[in-house]
Amino acid sequence: MTKVNLFIAGMSKCGTTSLHNYLNLHENIYMSNFKEPQYFIRNQLKFPHQGPGDRNIDDIIIHSTDYEALFEGSEEYQIRGESSSDYLYFEKSAEEIKEYNPDAKIILMLRNPVDRAYSAYTHLTRDGRETKTFEFALEHEEERINLNYGCMWHLKSMSLYYDKVKHFIDVFGVDQVKVVIFDDFKEDSVIVLNSICDFLEIPKSNFKDEDLINYNISGVPKNKKIMSLVQNKWLKQIIKNMIPSAKAKEKVKGVIFSKLLTKEKMQFETRIRLIDYFSNDINKLEELLNINLSKWKK
User: Fold this and answer.
1) For the domain that residue 88 is a member of, what is the CATH number?
2) What is the CA 115 to chain-centroid distance, rounded?
3) Could you tell me if 166 and 176 are in contact, meaning their C-beta atoms sit under 8 angstroms apart?
4) Stretch 191-219: mean pLDDT, rounded?
5) Confidence band (pLDDT; 50, 70, 90) for 205?
6) CA atoms within 13 A on the CB side of 174
7) Number of domains observed in the structure of the chain
8) Where does the Sulfotransferase domain start and stop, copy by copy (predicted)?
9) Sorting pLDDT into bands at 50, 70 and 90, what band is 291?
C-alpha cells in the first residue's frame, strides 16, 4: 500500500482539528476520516486511563491492517495524511514514524502555552469531565498524571514544547518539519494553508473562508444541566443520523456551543504565574525556530 506521508503530530488544542479538516478540502490531499488514530504511540499509551471520560484502547488503532484500512482508496492522492495530536507529546513517535516512512512531512501546531493549558481545561469542563477550578487542576496535575489520567489532563506538561519540537526536527530535519503558530493560523488561515501547500510541494488551492469553520470549540458551560443533555450519547446519535454531512454537523454544533458556552477569563494571578513557568521554554523555542514569540510572554 502507498504510505501515509503527512502527519499533523500535535499539539492538542492548537487547531489541529481545524487544520485536518481544511487540508481535506484540497484536491491533492486525503486526510483520514478517523482523526486521532494514535497508531504510532499505541505502545507508549498505558490503558486503562483513569480520568473521567478518557479514551480507552478501543478508541485508538493498534493493528497495522486497521491503520492501512484508514487510507483505502487514497492511492491517487499525492498527499495522504492523518492527525494524532499526542504524537508530539510522546516524542519517541518521531522514530516510529521515521521508520515507517522516512520521507514523511510533519506539521506541528503550537499555541501560547498558557492559553493552550487553559483551553484544554475548558475542553474538559465543556464535556463535564472536569468539575474543579483551573487552579485546582494545575495544583493536582502531577497527582493526576501519576494516576494515569489521559493526556488532556496534562495541562502544563503538554504546553512545554521545546524539547519535543527539537526532537522531531533532529529526527526528520528542518526540511520535513513545519511549525505552525496558532495565532498566525487564527489570524489568516488561508495564508497559512497556502504556506503548507508550498511545504508539501503541491499547488495552492482556492480555500474559501466560508468553508473554514471553527472546529472543536471549547468553553465553560453556562448551564451544566443543559450542556450535559447536549453531550448525551443518544442525542449525539440522533443529530448524526439527521445531519450526515460532517461540515454541516460542525456548523450546527458551533451554533449550539456558541449559545451554551462562555469564554471565562483566567485569573490574572494565575496567568502571571504560568507565564513565568513557561518563560524559559518559550525563550529556547524562539531561538530554535528563529521566531519572535513575545506575545506569549504577556
Assistant:
1) 3.40.50.300
2) 14
3) no
4) 80
5) confident
6) 3
7) 1
8) 6-271
9) very high
